[in-house]
């Protein structure tokens, strides 16, 4: 099976712009989560989507949003970019095991640089 | 609220020496625990996971971890370090329900000296 893919891998934007990142989960996985990774804050949970519905949300401002399509592919959008949004954005997919362990499979990430 | 503390942001070992990366968790209920590894410019790869089946968990690449409830610890070990083990390692916790997001530690960078 192909792994989680993320596009683009690298992105450079300027302050005030908006950006859309894309994630294709492993075939058959219905849950997609997004994480932001920075040197200062480490890995922080952004949100999780399951069956096109946001199921969990982290503590990020409303400028960060996402959605999931019927084929489980997901996008996240950041509007009005700030310098502090520069980070590696990781997408992870998982089956929805119910009471089982939430094992997540990560993509290679999108490196966003805001100038 | 659940949290994870990784002691030591940077650990350096000689090739062939024991690797010990420390992780302590805080959780109000029995958690699921994970160790992930991240190589430069790559995503995270699961090394092993604890799901209450056995306290000693064996993972990939010769790594293992032991769940100690009394110490709320889940330390990662490998008997003999290899140069290819140099990477960043993250401990993570999620609640038993399985539908909650992963909470990660700050990570430990492992350097292996020849």
What would your notes on this structure say?
- The complex is a heterodimer of chains A (115) and B (114).
- Helices cover 0% and strands 52% of the residues of chain A.
- With 115 residues, chain A is an all-beta fold.
- In chain A, β4 and β5 form a beta hairpin.
- The mean pLDDT of chain A is 92.
- By secondary structure, chain B is mainly beta.
- In chain B, 0% of the residues lie in helices and 56% in strands.
- Chain B is built from no helices and 11 strands.
- In chain B, strands 2, 4, 5, 9, 10 and 11 form a 6-stranded mixed β-sheet that branches.
- Chains A and B meet through β5 and β10 of A and β4, β5 and β10 of B.
Question: Topology, pairings included?
Answer:
The complex is a heterodimer of chains A (115) and B (114).
Chain A: E1 5-7, E2 10-13, E3 19-24, E4 31-38, E5 42-50, E6 53-57, E7 64-68, E8 74-78, E9 87-94, E10 105-106, E11 110-114
Parallel strand pairs in A: 2-11
Antiparallel strand pairs in A: 1-3, 3-8, 4-5, 4-9, 5-6, 7-8, 9-10, 9-11
Chain B: E1 3-7, E2 10-14, E3 19-26, E4 31-38, E5 44-50, E6 56-58, E7 64-68, E8 73-78, E9 87-95, E10 103-104, E11 108-113
Parallel strand pairs in B: 2-11
Antiparallel strand pairs in B: 1-3, 3-8, 4-5, 4-9, 6-7, 7-8, 9-10, 9-11
Beta fraction of chain B = over 45%
The general outline of chain A is: globular
Gyration radius of chain B, rounded: 13 Å
Low-confidence stretches of chain B: none
Mean pLDDT of chain A: 92
Count of extended strands of chain A: 11
Assembly category: heterodimer
Return the average pLDDT of chain B rounded to an integer: 90
Residues in helices of chain A, as a percent range:
under 10%
> What does the largest sheet of chain A look like?
7 strands, mixed
Overview features:
heterodimer; A: 115 residues; mainly beta; seven-stranded mixed β-sheet; globular; B: 114 residues; five-stranded antiparallel β-sheet; 56% strand
Gist of the model:
By secondary structure, chain A is mainly beta.
């Amino acid at each position: 099976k192909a792994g989680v893919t993320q596009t683009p891998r690298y992105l450079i934007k300027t302050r005030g712009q908006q950006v859309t990142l894309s994630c294709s989960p492993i075939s058959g996985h219905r849950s997609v989560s997004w994480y932001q990774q920075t040197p200062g804050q480490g890995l922080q949970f952004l949100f999780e989507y399951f069956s096109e519905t946001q199921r969990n949300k982290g503590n990020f401002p409303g400028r960060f949003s996402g959605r999931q399509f019927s084929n489980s592919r997901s996008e996240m959008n950041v509007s009005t970019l700030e310098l502090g949004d520069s980070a590696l954005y990781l997408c992870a997919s998982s089956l929805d095991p119910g009471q089982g362990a939430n094992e997540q499979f990560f993509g290679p990430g999108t490196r966003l640089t805001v100038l | 609220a659940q949290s994870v503390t990784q002691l030591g942001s940077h650990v350096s070992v000689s090739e062939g020496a024991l690797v010990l990366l420390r992780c302590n968790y805080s959780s109000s209920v029995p958690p699921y625990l994970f160790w992930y590894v991240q190589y430069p410019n790559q995503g995270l790869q699961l090394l092993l996971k604890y799901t209450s089946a056995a306290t000693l968990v064996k993972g990939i690449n010769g790594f293992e971890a032991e769940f100690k409830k009394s110490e709320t610890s889940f330390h990662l070990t490998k008997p003999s370090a290899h140069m290819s083990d140099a990477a960043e390692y993250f401990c993570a916790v999620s609640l038993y329900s399985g539908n909650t997001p992963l909470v990660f530690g700050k990570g430990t960078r492992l350097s292996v000296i020849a």
